[in-house]
Design goal:
Blueprint (H helix, E strand, L loop, with lengths): L1 H17 L3 E2 L5 E8 L6 E8 L2 E9 L6 E8 L4 E7 L5 E8 L2 E9 L5 E8 L2 E9 L5 E8 L2 E2 L1 E6 L5 E8 L2 E9 L5 E8 L3 E9 L5 E8 L2 E2 L2 H10 L8 E2 L2 E2 L25
Antiparallel strand pairs: 1-2, 2-3, 3-4, 4-5, 5-6, 6-7, 7-8, 8-9, 9-10, 10-11, 11-12, 11-13, 13-14, 14-15, 15-16, 16-17, 17-18, 18-19, 20-21
């Protein structure tokens, strides 16, 4: 009986193999295809073609394993695809949509325990619209907006207890308008205004965590004024001089950009694209 079953299984496999990986007279892929690694004989992908165009669900595998890496559900003769990606441990890694070979609409990303890491919106393969990054706790870490790949619009940064860490806006990938950055207790560590081009403008204040003014910058036409010029600018424009006095001497601004959160823009780590 076992021998007969083995023979039937071999015959079925042979028939199945003959029915796959076919090219028509024009050299176009037709029907069910399986691509394997010639060294390991492990599957690279499997799916169905019609006139060389993918149809329905395709499965892609991690190299040298039987572990599923990605499923792609192709629609409209392969022009649109809905992707679901997995970590090597089988947990969900990402979900999203492709138009052609470019990301489109909302994409969600997850860590190796399937907790949400971030979501992004795309248009023509570029970030476009709202982007949100999450803490491991599930609370929001950062909210930003993009316009065809460039930061554009309001942003907010948070501490894990939901208190605001920073807020302001971008235009053409550069800070614009009023921006403020805060200590965990809510005191503004740095506050000021950016003009077009991401250039500081007017008076910038820097405070200690105890809410005392630590230093001050005055910017005019993209240049930081020296102390005497800064005092004249403040007096001329009738701005309250909040600079602290120490031993009868005006405290000069010694705060460098890299000592204040948000005064320089840092790049975030790119999400892995498993496609």
């Amino acid at each position: 009986m076992r021998k007969k079953l083995l023979i039937v299984l071999i015959v079925v496999q042979a028939v199945f193999a003959l029915g796959q990986n076919k090219l028509d007279a024009a050299g176009k892929k037709q029907g069910y295809w399986v691509k394997t690694d010639p060294k390991t004989n492990k599957k690279i992908y499997e799916g169905t073609f019609k006139d060389d165009k993918p149809q329905g669900v395709f499965k892609y595998y991690y190299p040298d394993t039987d572990s599923l890496r990605t499923t792609m559900n192709f629609k409209n003769d392969g022009k649109i695809a809905y992707a679901t990606m997995y970590h090597l441990n089988g947990k969900l890694q990402a979900k999203g949509k492709y138009i052609g070979e470019q990301k489109d609409s909302v994409w969600n990303y997850y860590d190796e325990t399937a907790k949400i890491l971030s979501y992004e919106t795309y248009k023509e393969g570029k970030k476009n619209g709202k982007s949100v990054v999450y803490f491991w706790s599930g609370n929001i870490s950062e909210e930003k907006n993009y316009k065809l790949g460039l930061l554009d619009g309001p942003f907010k940064q948070y501490y894990d207890d939901k208190k605001i860490k920073g807020e302001g806006a971008y235009n053409n990938d550069q800070f614009i308008g009023k921006c403020s950055f805060y200590y965990p207790n809510g005191v503004a560590v740095a506050t000021g205004v950016y003009e077009k081009g991401g250039i500081k403008k007017g008076v910038w204040l820097y405070k200690t965590i105890e809410n005392k003014v630590e230093s001050r910058e005055v910017w005019v036409n993209g240049k930081q004024l020296k102390e005497k010029e800064a005092q004249e600018f403040i007096k001329k424009n009738k701005i309250e001089d909040t600079t602290e006095k120490t031993g009868g001497t005006t405290k000069q601004n010694q705060v460098k950009k890299n000592n204040s959160p948000g005064t320089t823009k840092s790049k975030s780590k790119d999400q892995n694209d498993e496609q």
